[in-house]
Each structure stands twice: as structure tokens, then as C-alpha cells.
Amino acid sequence: MRNIKYFLIPTFLFLAVCGIFLSLHSDKISAQLFIHNTWYNENIYQVMKFITGWGEWQLFAVVIVAYSFQKSWWRAGEFLTAGILSAVVVQILKRLVFAPSPRPMAIIDWGETQLALGMGIDMPLQFAFPSGHTTTAFIWFTLMALHYKRPVLQVFAALCAIAVAISRVYLMMHWITDVMAGILLGVTIAVIVNAVFKYLQKKSALIKRAD
Description:
Number of domains: 1
Helix content: over 70%
Largest sheet: none
Strand content: under 5%
Distance between the termini: 33 Å
Order of helices and strands: HHHHHHHHH
């Protein structure tokens, strides 16, 4: 974990801020309404719609294809495995463990918000916990931090992943607790998959030497 400390520091600072913010409100609904009614702006909304796309599976596909063209099979396999594992774990948690887990859109009175309907975002009403987009983003950016260890790149990766988490809350798709869980889940999956692939790669290299 030390080799991604510049990624983890801003990540855990963000988690701490989220925890403090929640503690200052009576419940998650009031926290959500405060964020939305304080910072809602149509221009910001459009930016958040763009940022939230960084947490979708297409990003994994692009990276896997890019590594495959470079014949970096281990890295391509690592990202593919992490993506599949993420999808399986998140869906089990969403649909079996924590279902129905209603989203903000299903609970908050529309009369209390400034958000208009029909702005180009599909609004699901359940299966909120944990945030799949946040989990995916943190897997992707944690893996990038593990492979590209320059401090400035790690900080940049962390900020990009955090931006996805913020977008999910801003767009009323998730509660703060959903994205906090997604962050922890994403980092954990990425670190475990990376460790397994490092072990397998070393073992494969030893076998080739023995041959």
C-alpha cells in the first residue's frame, strides 16, 4: 500500500470529509438536500453528467484493448479480471445483500429540490448500495496508480476517481454512504487483483527460467 500512498492520502481525506459532513446532518436525506440545494447549477450538472461516465465499463474496455495492442497481456488480464470481479461483487451486494436499497430519487420529495426532470439522466429508483460507478472508477484509477507511481500521477488519479464519486451524489443517483462504500470496495478489489497478478507473473517467470 505504500507504493500508492499519494493516491490513498487524498482518497482517505475525502472519506474523512464525507464522514464529518454526514455527522453534521440529522440524516442522509438532509445531507443530500443540502448538497443539492446549495450547489445545484445547470452548467455544473452538465459537467457532472460527463464526469460520471468515467465510472462506466467502457473505460475498462478501452484500457484492455490498448494494453492488448501493446501485447501487455498481464496488464490487460489484470484490468479484465478486476472489471469482471467488480461487476459480480457489486451486483451481489446491490441485488441480494442490500436490496432494495432505495436511491435518493425514490425517497426525496421533488418539491424540496431544484432538479428538473428529463435532463438526460436515467434515474433508477433502487439498488443504490454500493455505488457501482464509484467502485469501477476507484478500481480503474487505483490500478493506474499501482502501475504509474509518480506522485503527481497518483494524486491526479485520486482526484479523478473522487470526482466520479462526487458526481454520483450530485446527480442524485446515490447517497454519500453509497459512494463511501464504493471507494473502499474499489480500492480493495484493485489492490487484491494487482497482488494476485504480480504473484502469478513472478511464478510464470520462474517457470520459464526453469525450462
